[in-house]
Design a protein that fits this description.
The chain is built from 1 helix and 11 strands. It has 209 residues and is mainly β. The chain has a single domain (5-207), classed as Beta Barrel (Lipocalin), CATH 2.40.128.20. Strands 1, 2, 3, 4, 5, 6, 7, 8, 9, 10 and 11 form an 11-stranded antiparallel β-sheet that branches. The termini are far apart.
Length: 209
């Protein structure tokens, strides 16, 4: 069966290496130092992400599935009052695919000492919110040097041939390395025979200019 992009709608992130990568595990950061819960480090990461980026998007509809290339996009990242990063992602001008707009915000919350990420995508209008954990500062995983933010539970209206599929999710945001940043979204099904977490989306940001 041929999968249509409209059947694979889902809201994602990407910031930072994010972002995700954009924001949103990350490619160029395996050897980097871990991101601590320090506000100065958070500010530096946000500053690195400011600018205009070409974005390559890919998705995996399941744990054993092959990657599907999504239409190229462009992301404009700007600071709001020097502390909040706003990202607006849209379809690349050269693409003839269906247009979309994805808006995301990324910040360091000095009150709860967490990094917070929020996104809303017209391809699947569902508000998504992720936060870091204090334990990330001593992360010993292969994603060392990247930032993991954890979301809650959401329901995808359509996922492959299934409808109203519940997932839990997390995103991994990399540092900016050589004008590139990667954000990956991982999903864990909450029902069905296979509930293993899998890489579902990847945003590869390349700085323009």
């Amino acid at each position: 069966m041929k999968l249509r992009l409209d059947d694979l709608k889902i809201s994602v992130c990407l910031v930072a290496s994010i972002a995700c990568g954009s924001l949103l595990t990350t490619v160029a950061c395996a050897d980097g130092a871990p991101l601590g819960e320090n506000a100065n480090e958070a500010a530096a990461l946000i500053q690195e992400m400011v600018g205009t980026w070409n974005v390559r998007q890919r998705m995996w509809p399941g744990a054993a599935a092959k990657a599907i290339d999504l239409p190229p996009a462009i992301a404009h990242r700007a600071l709001i009052e020097s502390s909040i990063l706003q990202e607006v992602m849209t379809l690349a001008p050269e693409s003839s695919e269906t247009s979309f707009t994805r808006v995301a915000y990324f910040e360091h919350n000095d009150v709860n000492r967490q990094r917070e990420y929020f996104s809303l995508d017209t391809r699947a209008p569902q508000m998504m919110n992720e936060r870091s954990r204090a334990s990330d500062a001593s992360d010993k995983s292969p994603n060392r040097g990247a930032l993991t933010l954890y979301g809650g539970r959401f329901v995808a209206p359509q996922w492959g041939e299934s409808k109203n599929v519940p997932f839990r999710y997390r995103i991994v945001v990399a540092r900016v390395e050589k004008a590139q940043q990667v954000v990956r979204l991982y999903l864990k099904p909450q029902s069905g025979a296979n509930i293993k977490e899998f890489l579902a989306f990847e945003y590869v940001y390349t700085r323009k200019g």
